[in-house]
Amino acid sequence: MGLDLPGTILRSRAVAALAFPQGIDRYLEQVNPMWAAHEVRARIVDIRREVDVPGHPPVATITLQPTSTWRGHRAGQHVQLGVEVDGARRTTRVFTISSPDSRQGDRFTVTMRANPGGVVSRFLVERAAPGTMVHLSQAQGDFVLPDRVPEHVLFISGGSGITPVMSMLRSLQRRTHRGQVTFLHYAQSPEHQIFAEELDEVRRSGHGIDVHLLHPEQGDPNLSPAYLERLVPGYRDVPTWACGPAPMIEAVRAAYDESPALRVEYFQPPRTSGTSAAGDVAFTKAGLEAPNTGAPLLEQAEALGLSPEFGCRMGICFSCTALKKAGTVKNVLTGEESSSAEEEIRVCVSAPVGDCVVEL
Amino acid sequence: MNATTKTKTMKTNKTNLTDEQLERFGEELDALRQRVLADLGEEDAAYIRNVVKRRQQLEIAGRALFYLPPAWPLAVAALSLSKILDNMEIGHNVMHGQYDWMGDPGLNSRMYDWDTMCPGEQWKYSHNYIHHTYTNILGKDRDIGYGILRMDEDQPWRPQYLGNPVYALLLMLFFEWGVALHDLEVENIVAGKRKMSDNKPLYPGLIRKIRNQTIKDYLLFPALTGPLFPLTLAGNATANLVRNVWAFNIIFCGHFPAGVATFSQEECEDETRGHWYYRQLLGSANITGGRLFHVLSGNLSHQIEHHLFPDLPARRYPDLSVEVQEICRRYGLQYNTGRLSKQLFSVASKICRMALPDRKAEDGDAPVTQDALAA
């Protein structure tokens, strides 16, 4: 880290006192959206299609130039990325960083599939253009490579779960890791293979990196202890990073039998156990769950003995606003349903439809 | 004009509307609200961002002009306008959650704080919840007289209310302090309804906010102008004063002109949505004026629309008012509006009249009729 005099001044207590209560970032962004003292934003500098199979959602890699407030990331971490669709509604989703370790202010990439229901991923892959500004968090997550990389590492990934391990693989190459790397990836078909060319190059260049791309739907072996043992003898003791859809992670977990060598990551919204027909409602802070009665969330929370903050109980005062993590809610005043993944809702007038997860 | 204030039922609010009519009235307003909600988008976002930008430009211009002593009046004007925009069109409205749908933390009701002594967090409780839910219900809405003034015949007269005009003048000059201390509910402590210890959790936030505001306006910015320290200090104080006077007047014209109704707790028990709308309508008053006037009032010149739809972006109120007035005409309901001068005069006479005990000879309806004639 070099001397960052402007940053030090902008983050000083004196400047905070002068810019109170709005904060200096509100002023800086008016001059130049790339100026920030605390917040992290980025400008899109490149959008490259990785996979474009007709009839399937395309995959693209987005290159971002962050503000100097970006503190860098460790391979395997993810970032919250918010976009303003049509200049009005900011929507934020989590994406894994696909480029190798970055330092303060360094460019980095995120790679994503434009899922049909994905507001942010579709906007980024299909509509955004270089120059578009996005809002970021700092890098997050503990699914990272240690500073001292073990002699032999095993990566297991499935589908889009390739991005964090790809970031790790790229970091290892940049760090000129001299040990052995086994890279095992499951995809639907060769056409769906993200980073195909780069992986092909890695495979051919040797450097002790053993790449296996498998397509079980086309006859390749499924993930099993026997297959892993054949590929990497004594695999349970080899430090392993696995990332992919839930069924794959469950299979990996079973194969490793609680071995401390295994680290896993899977992205999925928090879920209820799905045991009752009308759905279940989960309150994450309280760690409670109950069958959905159809009443507004505030009432359901209170019925479970919680006492969330509330005011008017009729949807006007916003005292009871809480973060919905997953599920659909219906506004009992208007009948309007909303299924956005993460959104702030007024729990006094929001009744869950089916499963629902709220941060209360 | 008189047509708007001639309703005779102010004291009892015995509406001529049947329950079914009240229900349909509520449904019509709900439909109006729904239509605007579905239409929110880029224009509303661009509008509020533009106001934010203008406010910043005015603030920076104001702070900078203090370096030029001859431009002192201009500096004060720019800074006053900046504070007025911040408190009214931005702060009040953003903290109502009018722009929460944008998902922008800088315009979010839970994050925003305004350029005034009162911490936004505390104001939101007394304003968004207490005042907007129990609007003009005596004994519930603490904004009727703010615990200091007598603003309604149904507040029993006591000798201390002889000072009503003086209290009002002081509240106007020190309005930001009044708003900041409002949440301590001193009147309820005196009445024994609230304990001193209930205020303990409020002190740290209040002290922090007051300290930060004071350091900024009365120490740091004056110090930055070096030898001009006293001039800048006086300028900042004047800008805060101008904002206080403006905000006080706009707000008092929203609920206290003649013809605005108050309600008893009994008549609002188990209230329907239709009756809630009805109470918001009769409990508020508008001020007519030009576009700039509406912006500087935070569109609270459309207090009626604001009380009917507190969470819709205020820039929508002028358009909504046309339809609300049409609905009111059809249901034969009063829609209280008038020029700023008219509403101010009406409020001022009420403040003075309420200082004195009620004249017993009259029945409850009489003062309203008198006001209508006076106006």
What does this structure look like?
The complex is a heterodimer of chains A (360) and B (375). Chain A is of the alpha/beta class and 360 residues long. Chain A is 21% helix and 30% strand. Chain A has helices spanning 5-10, 13-18, 24-31, 119-127, 162-174, 196-205, 225-231, 246-256, 297-303; strands at residues 40-51, 59-66, 78-85, 89-96, 108-113, 133-136, 152-158, 180-186, 209-214, 240-243, 262-265, 280-283, 288-291, 321-331, 337-338, 343-346, 350-358. Chain A is globular, with a radius of gyration of 23 Å. With 375 residues, chain B is mainly α. Chain B has one domain (2-115, 211-374). Chain B has helices at 19-39, 42-65, 72-95, 120-133, 164-173, 175-182, 186-190, 203-224, 229-255, 273-282, 291-296, 303-308, 317-331, 340-353, 366-374; strands spanning 286-287, 337-338. In chain B, helix 2 (42-65) packs antiparallel against helix 3 (72-95), helix 3 packs across helix 9 (229-255) and helix 9 (229-255) crosses helix 14 (340-353). The model of chain B is unreliable at 1-12 and 361-375 (pLDDT under 50). Classes of the chains: A alpha/beta (360), B mainly alpha (375). Chain A binds chain B through residues 14, 17-18, 20-22, 26-27, 30, 82, 84, 86-92, 311-312, 314-319, 321, 333-334, 344, and chain B through 30, 34, 37, 40-42, 44-46, 52-53, 56, 60, 96-97, 100-104, 106, 109-110, 113-115, 124-125, 128-129, 132-133, 209, 212-213, 215-216, 220-221, 273, 276, 310-311.
